Queue: 2 jobs
Job 1
Amino acid sequence: MLNRRVILALALLAALPGTAVAQARPANPLPSWNDGPARHTIIDFVTRVTAEGSPDFVAPAERIAAFDNDGTLWTEQPIYFQLAFAFDRIKTLARQHPEWRTKQPFKALLARDMQGLSVTGEKGVLEIMAATHAGVTTEDFRKAVLDWTLNARHPRFNRPYTELVFQPMLELLDYLRANGFKTFVVSGGGVEFMRPWMEKVYGIPPEQVVGSSGVVKFQTNGDEKGELVKLAKIEFIDDGPGKPVGINRFIGRRPIFAFGNSDGDLQMLQWTMAGPGARFAGLVHHTDAEREYAYDRNSKVGKLDKALDEATARRWTVVDMKHDWKVIFPSEK
Amino acid sequence: MLNRRVILALALLAALPGTAVAQARPANPLPSWNDGPARHTIIDFVTRVTAEGSPDFVAPAERIAAFDNDGTLWTEQPIYFQLAFAFDRIKTLARQHPEWRTKQPFKALLARDMQGLSVTGEKGVLEIMAATHAGVTTEDFRKAVLDWTLNARHPRFNRPYTELVFQPMLELLDYLRANGFKTFVVSGGGVEFMRPWMEKVYGIPPEQVVGSSGVVKFQTNGDEKGELVKLAKIEFIDDGPGKPVGINRFIGRRPIFAFGNSDGDLQMLQWTMAGPGARFAGLVHHTDAEREYAYDRNSKVGKLDKALDEATARRWTVVDMKHDWKVIFPSEK
């Protein structure tokens, strides 16, 4: 009898569900991170909050980790990738819009006249966003985004945008999840633009993606079936002071771990650090013009100025991309 | 050596995390449900979508179940419990507001003059909601809600409101989760009112609670730490056509299973059923005046009229509380 029970036990052990297996902690976490203060601080923090009996122990349900996306989990240069999607989509939709050939900002964009486009300013960008992000059902928009992730290429790296994610950060997401954290994206990007691909690329399901959104309207067809249509009206901007608001709205509890890379993440980091107990705040500092980009205080995209001062003053973790990361993108592994 | 490995295996088996244990399917699911068409349809649906190789199989990630709260998971009579919370809180806060003694609608409420209160109409209710739900940090509001769940008593049943949850629905939540579903609340109730207690009562964590919300503002104190303050301005009403919108915004994918009890749930059920593959829509019909309440087409609270017609026409599952449920509340087990 003992034998049968033992065999059963071993069989059950082998059949453990993925979640249980994922709990096993890797022997060498964060392999793409150079051994330095950033890697050390992360591992020390995770060890302290997960060790039962530790004064810093945090129950698994409260292990909430929030990550900015643009510039933190993937590249954001030379322009935010969602804007690249919008530009590409204008080209796709132009066939159905012959009037765009003579109408700004579409005319400039279609003629690759970047100077002419920039003259149209913020108004031009908003018109492009409305033309590419509204008047479409949520399902059709989802398909357009997925199609773009498969076919579009980044101008400098000539590869799909979803391959320009940071390998060290993918490892960090895995490491946190293996230690019982629930990982969320909290991004200024559009939530309907991010959700279609993030589960596959980051292992983060749609319901754990927080972002900016436009108004969506429910309408029933003749047959009483319903569909959701995206309208050209901004509903919520999940950036700056909007990030703690978005976290409160979507997640409903304060993270104990947050990572960003720009001034738009400052309030999220402040809100994270203002809670009780052990906490972690991190910033990715883009210092590697050779392998990726180098920018901070004077950048139009992903400006990092006030948050860098605050990180220095409060001794938050600042990742020096050039020195802290062995590789940048998964393809370099 | 084998012996040591066997002991290790058995030790590991004993240390299986809760999630893995919860996967075990109970031999007799839904014990508080009488054997009838409602119970049968639920079990048949869950069996079909979880059986590998079944034509109706649904991958675990897509097993999203959405539940209304008021009248579906807990009682909603004689008034929505959140309104009872607001009324009770006016009495608590009255000490700090001597001016309320002579000012409507507070004067009527404090004098238990329900006739006078009803004269103040919707405007009066909105004033009471603003006075009890705004001008407070999210953390202090959370404490007020938790305090109320411990101390307030329902006028008819004389027990805490959080004990007036439906035992058969608690079993249904457990049954779905044991079968790989992720359970969400999608309620017209305020999200900040629901989240503090739902994890303990329903096993549903804050990030899986979707509801109506007021505007919340991030503000930093002098020391640069931040806090979130609730303002007296409605931001989103998660009811009627707002429910599919709320599901899209918070969950980001269409449920395959939804349960409601009133016309406010109609669009959520339509949206759920309009997707491809196997789907389930259910309504709780309050037919038991003796053990709970009996109401439908003419009720001011939880009116069930159009959704009942649609459920009949489309053969959705309608739970007849009186005949389908052996017990109503957990205390009757």
Job 2
Amino acid sequence: MDLKAPIKVYMKKKLIGVKPEDTVKRAGEIMAEFDIGSLVVVDDEGNVVGFLTKGDIIKRLVIPGLPNTTPVREIMTKDLVTVPSTATLGEVLDVLSKKGIKHVLIEEGGKIVGIFSISDLLEASRRKLETAIATE
Amino acid sequence: MDLKAPIKVYMKKKLIGVKPEDTVKRAGEIMAEFDIGSLVVVDDEGNVVGFLTKGDIIKRLVIPGLPNTTPVREIMTKDLVTVPSTATLGEVLDVLSKKGIKHVLIEEGGKIVGIFSISDLLEASRRKLETAIATE
């Protein structure tokens, strides 16, 4: 794990999304299917208009007891946290830690080009571990 | 981050728990309050009888549309994944990666003595980052 490497090396380029009018049930199904903790919310023009994490679902649907037919739009986070694609892994970890979040969107030229989550560190650590074992 | 260090260095010793008869709403409130993704489920004799993650809540409560008054016992994971406290961080990351899980219980002398989650890596990376900056 190289804290000085650009986040582009570690981010996932494939953004998995839902529409604002999709139900939270549908969003949960997609999270479960792809084993991910967050989704981008994309409107019909392809703009990222929100972000939805498992934590959002717990806080804004499960705790208040809303039905799973609630549209994603009603519980998504509209304030998007982004970092530029040129930021280093260390800088991004610092942003996550300071903001108390586990996922961040990566922006380049005004567009969202990827997502990085703490879980991606696991993959990076594992690769390092395998390399370490291979060179022992 | 030292992949050869024992997991004891990185685990959290404070286990945050709920009772099997607590509601999922209560479990969600505790997760939100402490900003954690999992809880241990502890019976009246102090035995860890289950484990509950945000993912369990999404999969087994939100998707099927159960009410938030459902007892934790009905949706918790009963198959506990544990690693010995002498396991190295690298070994633990490997277990998490292979099993596709993000949290694991740490066992010592037949007792659960801690918990490690991928998020704890963030704290470890941050400490390393701060050390790196301090020594630059």
